[in-house]
What we know:
The structure is a homodimer.
Chain A: H1 5-12, H2 16-23, H3 31-44, H4 50-57, E1 62-67, H5 73-88, E2 92-97, H6 104-114, E3 119-123, H7 129-137, E4 142-145, E5 153-157, H8 159-172, E6 178-181, H9 188-203, E7 213-214, H10 226-237, E8 245-248, H11 251-264, E9 270-271, H12 277-282, E10 286-288, H13 291-307, E11 315-318, E12 321-323
Parallel strand pairs in A: 1-2, 1-3, 3-4, 4-5, 5-11, 6-7, 6-8, 8-9
Antiparallel strand pairs in A: 10-12
Helix pairs in contact in A: 1-2, 1-3, 5-13, 8-9, 10-11
The structure holds a DNA duplex.
Amino acid sequence: MASTIYDIAKKAGVSIATVSRVFNESNNVSEATRKRVLEVAEAVGYHPQAFAQGLASKRNNTVMAVVPIISNYFFMEVLGGIQDKLTEMKYELTIFNVTSGEHLFEEVERVLKRRWADGYLFISVHLSEEQWKRLQRLNVPITLVDEHFEGFDSVSVDNIQGAYRATKCLISQGYKKIAMLSALETSKPIRDRLTGYKKALKEYMIPFCNEYIVSGDSVYRDGFTERGGYEAMIKMLSMEEPPEACFCASDIQALGALKAMEDVAKYIPIIGYDDIELAEYIGLSTIRQPMKDMGYFATQNLLERLKNNSKAISQTIYSPELILRSSTK
Amino acid sequence: MASTIYDIAKKAGVSIATVSRVFNESNNVSEATRKRVLEVAEAVGYHPQAFAQGLASKRNNTVMAVVPIISNYFFMEVLGGIQDKLTEMKYELTIFNVTSGEHLFEEVERVLKRRWADGYLFISVHLSEEQWKRLQRLNVPITLVDEHFEGFDSVSVDNIQGAYRATKCLISQGYKKIAMLSALETSKPIRDRLTGYKKALKEYMIPFCNEYIVSGDSVYRDGFTERGGYEAMIKMLSMEEPPEACFCASDIQALGALKAMEDVAKYIPIIGYDDIELAEYIGLSTIRQPMKDMGYFATQNLLERLKNNSKAISQTIYSPELILRSSTK
DNA sequence: CTGAAAGCGCTTACAG
DNA sequence: CTGAAAGCGCTTACAG
């Protein structure tokens, strides 16, 4: 059986309070005592248990990342930034994977109530205004990434702006029939990007044409998949009047679109969204989201709030950057 | 202040034991009582706290993944498999990022002693025989991924075999001067892949030539980076007698190598290792590791051990698969 | 089916 | 600098 604080206290001839102080680096311990305790602890392989510490102290030096999907590029990059900051500050990371179905809200609420972590990072979790308000009542430190709600700190990228720039780039190359390769419109990023796309068309007085908003049929991951992009591009290219150029709602869909174009040997310029690592290799023009920075900054923000919960709520919005490569040439 | 089990018990007119039973889905509760408790809990937004449950029950339905690096392809894929299984079994995932420096062992030992999780998955954590033995004494359920030690369950891929196949593939195409684009030899996968490379050469009676083992100069991530690959390939191509073909220790290095070849406009066939998603897009021949399967299987294995710690220790070794694409044509 | 009570392994005022 | 003691919020035999 593993030893507890009592065993150490007894063997070192001190009280458990003293042992606790040694491990919590309180400076109210004499050097001799500290040394003795540490020696005993080392000998039997003792270290305070996380759960007991957590319960007694009501803190646990853990941040929980709540995410709808774990193994994708966007999340991986964001996570990289989160981890950098967390390691720097000696916090631990717990990942909670919500299943994004109809019980999303209940799942999220439940995990907050369990008080697993000191603070929470919500990555690409999209809830209704009403639902965010309910979470607010739980009074738990939360920072939003890739989402926006006035009651919580948030870090996001201006999706409208990004789509606008992408579309405008295509327009400025002289194209008029510009399609948008879309996904499920229940997805918030999609709605925003659609808005930006329309805004650009309007500005250049190009009539909006609903047929040019095309999605694939697969709904897995809301359509943000290579397959979704493939399906949509096949549809586009077989239209009576195919578009001359295409703005894709994500790089991963653009990848599928690229494949589709190869398969039917018809090519139109396309531009993606995200700037995943792959984009550079295949020469995909895209809109860059500073994913890693967002993760890092959001974490920093959350940790500051853990220190001082009364600080003002801040909304950070990054500007997306247009990256031109060969796919728009 | 959030309510506790006492508040619920009082409001529902039952004991805390009963409230506890309701939330633990014990069936020894009358339907009427259960309903009443649930109603009260719902009204005040109560849910048992993870840490209190964990301390009292000595279980916490959490698995911890111990990883040296978080945002890379290999890990992302493995993690995807882990998460699938964990979600299926309603376990939570905690990620612990060891910093891979000189205190690696101490860090790892400490986290095990803290008893954060019910079980641990070590991904690409390479320790000495001696160190693994010390961890064994902690008597904690551990499953190794991408590593092998007889005292723990493990899931890995035969690196020697993989490198052997890659090299043999190049030899069979008629090349004799075959280089290996390597990385830090302190890395265990590198040592194994080197062994496989040599084995193939020997089998075909091609003399081993130490100059043909080339690494980049950057040591970040043990050299498993695009940059490391770039640097190494530049070196190779500027040799007096450049190799005719090259086996790269990882796809990510192969990527850098590809860039280097473009930059100096000299091309030789190369083959990578891993089969990251990117590989398909750029036509990189490679050795596939079933990363997602490994994660899934390792997790399943660990969860079984949590149920029954006396089951026999198993070593699972996957065979790597040769994937031929355009980079070797 | 239900409750009283001990216990999980710590932290933290409080007192000295 | 140190200790005694209460408390963190649960679970789980045990008894009925």
